[in-house]
């Protein structure tokens, strides 16, 4: 599948998800190229169908800017007590709907919005589907103060760490932290790794989203859209 074909699929999944948003909802909006199509489709619904949300939060300044360009008012997660529905992309989705996220570096806010959401829908093209979590390095956001120790410990554990880079420098997240991508592939015991990372000092968040997603909208190259 070339990029243009993949973008078409992302767009189809995004349009379907935009049709599932109802007026009066508190909506969470994720980050990434698939979500960018979703925001455009949602913006059109606002303009053409008069879609009126109760509140909206998002997971990156990129998405915020795009939502505001469509006239949406974007609030802060700390100002609301729950999110009715979150629409986000994912880098990999396993058969049981476990996922790897954070390819765009927004994993910390994405997980915080997710954990406060009553329902989560991921929108993906078929290339993201895997039987077991694999095929994508696992992003781990770490505090700069102890990042070298974290890197060495991951190396010693055989987790194949790599610094995420951006124009020759370490990638810096929204919160001023770094990302270490773990090239462990496949992830043999996702819950075990999540538990280890959850208990590692200096790790802010990781991209294992286990048991969080309720529904996945998948656009297939044979024209089928599945959810
Ligand atoms: C960003 C994410 C994205 O949802 C994920 O990377 C999918 O992105 P895309 O839709 O561009 O493939 O987790 O941190």
UniProtKB/TrEMBL annotation:
GO cellular component terms attached to this protein's record: cytosol
Entry keyword set: Isomerase, Membrane, Transmembrane, Transmembrane helix
UniProt KW Transmembrane keyword: yes
EC id: 5.3.1.6
Membrane-crossing segments per the record: 20-42
Catalytic activity as recorded in UniProt: aldehydo-D-ribose 5-phosphate = D-ribulose 5-phosphate
Pathway where it operates: Carbohydrate degradation; pentose phosphate pathway; D-ribose 5-phosphate from D-ribulose 5-phosphate (non-oxidative stage): step 1/1
InterPro entries: NagB/RpiA_transferase-like, Ribose5P_isomerase_typA_subgr, Ribose5P_isomerase_type_A
Annotated GO biological process: D-ribose metabolic process; pentose-phosphate shunt, non-oxidative branch
SUPFAM superfamilies: D-ribose-5-phosphate isomerase (RpiA), lid domain, NagB/RpiA/CoA transferase-like
Catalytic machinery residues: 110
Pfam families linked to this entry: Rib_5-P_isom_A
GO molecular-function terms, A-Z: ribose-5-phosphate isomerase activity
Binding-site residues, substrate: 31-34, 88-91, 101-104, 128
Enzyme class at the top of the EC tree: isomerase
Similarity annotation: Belongs to the ribose 5-phosphate isomerase family.
NCBIfam families: PRK00702.1, rpiA
Subunit annotation: Homodimer.
Function: Catalyzes the reversible conversion of ribose-5-phosphate to ribulose 5-phosphate.
Name of the protein: Ribose-5-phosphate isomerase A
Species whose genome carries this gene: Lactobacillus acetotolerans
């Amino acid at each position: 599948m070339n990029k243009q074909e993949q973008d078409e699929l992302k767009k189809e999944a995004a349009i379907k998800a935009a049709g599932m948003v109802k007026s009066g909802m508190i909506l969470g909006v994720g980050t990434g190229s698939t979500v960018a199509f979703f925001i455009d489709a949602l913006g059109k619904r606002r303009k053409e169908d008069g879609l009126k949300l109760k509140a909206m939060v998002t997971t990156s300044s990129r998405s915020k800017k795009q939502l505001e360009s469509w006239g949406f008012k974007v609030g802060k997660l700390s100002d609301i007590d729950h999110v009715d529905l979150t629409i986000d992309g994912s880098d990999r989705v396993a058969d049981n709907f476990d996922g790897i996220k954070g390819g765009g570096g927004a994993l910390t806010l994405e997980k915080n919005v997710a954990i406060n959401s009553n329902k989560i829908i991921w929108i993906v093209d078929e290339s993201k589907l895997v039987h077991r979590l694999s095929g994508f390095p696992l992003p781990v956001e770490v505090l700069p103060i102890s990042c070298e120790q974290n890197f060495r410990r991951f190396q010693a554990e055989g987790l194949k760490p790599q610094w995420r880079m951006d124009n020759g420098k370490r990638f810096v997240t929204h919160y001023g932290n770094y990302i270490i991508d773990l090239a462990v592939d496949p992830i043999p015991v996702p819950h075990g790794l999540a538990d280890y990372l959850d208990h590692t000092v200096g790790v802010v968040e990781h991209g294992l989203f286990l048991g969080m997603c309720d529904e996945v909208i998948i656009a297939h190259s044979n024209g089928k859209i599945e959810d």
